[in-house]
Amino acid sequence: MEKKANATVYSYPGQRHAFSRHNGKHYNAAAAHLANGRTNEFLNRQLPCLLDVPSETTSSRAIVQLQSTAKEQE
Question: Dienelactone hydrolase domain: from which residue to which, for each copy (predicted)?
Answer without folding.
Answer: 2-45
